[in-house]
Amino acid sequence: MIKRKKRVSLLTEPRINLSLPHMSGTEMEYIEAAFEMNWIAPLGPNVDRFEQEMAERVGVKDAVALSSGTAAIHLALCLMNVTRGDTVFCSTLTFVASANPILYQGAEPVFIDSEPDSWNMSPQALKRAMEDAVLRGKLPKAVIVVHLYGQSSQMDAIVQICNAYEVPIIEDAAESLGTTYKNKASGTFGKYGIYSFNGNKIITTSGGGMLISNDVESIQRARFLATQARDQARHYQHSEIGFNYRMSNIVAGIGRSQLRVLEERVAARRQVFDRYERLLGDLPGIQFMQELKNTRSNRWLTTFTVSPEATNTTADEVLRTLEEANIEARPVWKPLHLQPLFYDATYYPHQENLHVAEQLFQTGICLPSGSNLTEEQQFRVITCIRKAFKRSLPNGSFFIIGKREV
Question: What is the spatial distance between Cα 191 and Cα 213, in angstroms, rounded to a whole number?
């Protein structure tokens, strides 16, 4: 009999994930209360309170709890009467959910490049796009501004441009709940703001989202549309298209518990970022996403770029090294104007020969950044990255952190 050798896995260490859910420990109190009252079906006291508490937390007049952040963007476009033949400007460096609702409405997305400082929408490119829209006699119905990885966009400049052309703003703050710009909450500068409570976000309800605004009447209409647009009648009557977008009372209970620890989660992720920056910042060719002046990022994900010109390694090689060590890390978002889904969409670069989002996609890395990431886990990540850069360091040297060689 021939005995086969056992295959030895290289992945001997436990998996380190990018951003895991982090429960507060009080979620069951809200869930059990819902069970006791038999408020299991959609809507209920937790939904009402979650909306009120969120509106109070970020400083707006009203909010509606929904099934996802994508649903919130879709409803915002519906409230703005975006329809077939309209155009909507949108950040190009973002997840596809920021732009999919534009297609739901039959409208045409126009993608705006990033600027180097915040990695978010370039006011310079936005201004050119608006000027061209005037020449064509067709201004966009809305501008969707994304706050990437927890860092606020240059909102003063963007608001000034949009106000000049009387174009409303939708803030996609899915990644930036807890972030501030000039002491004002991210998501509260535009006509509408949206948040996401997906499993990897800074607070989570397992899945869900929120649409916020100071326009109370429009939020009331959003509730109507999100509940299948049911008319006021004893029987089921519907005069227009609606959606099944409302959050359940159980999920909202989780959200209420999570909202109570938002500041703790922000503090934890900022600490994770600080440790990465302190222990990796000396590596050649690394540039961390900076925090703009007068902003406070929630540091949802720690991100940095790798300059191939300054080092002998690349972002792809670092990502490969991390994966071999059973560590989840990802490239920066692939710009939407490069996605097959949007191959024919109009796109405005930051400058004529400077495509910032494309450069970030080629050189950017997102690191494990969860608020429940342990120091030991983070040191594993740091050690792995420094090993990937070892040949770029003088004499291939490492340095010591406590008893850890890094």
Answer: 6
**Beta strand pairing status for 302-306 and 62-66?**
unpaired
Interior angle at CA 213, CA 289 and CA 333, nearest 5: 30
Q: What letter represents residue 265's amino acid?
A: R
- For residue 323, what are the CA distances in angstroms to 49, 235, 384? 42, 56, 10
pTM score over 0.90:
yes
Express each pLDDT in 344-390 by its tens digit.
999 999 999 999 999 999 999 999 999 999 999 999 999 999 998 87
Half-sphere exposure of 348 (CA within 13 A, CB side): 21
- Pairwise CA distance, residues 123 & 152, whole Å: 13
Cβ atoms of residues 278 and 382 within 8 Å: no
For residue 45, give both structure tokens. 């006291």
> Is the separation of the CB atoms in 195 and 174 below 8 Å?
yes
Convert the pLDDT of each residue in 143-158 to its tens digit.
999 999 999 999 999 9
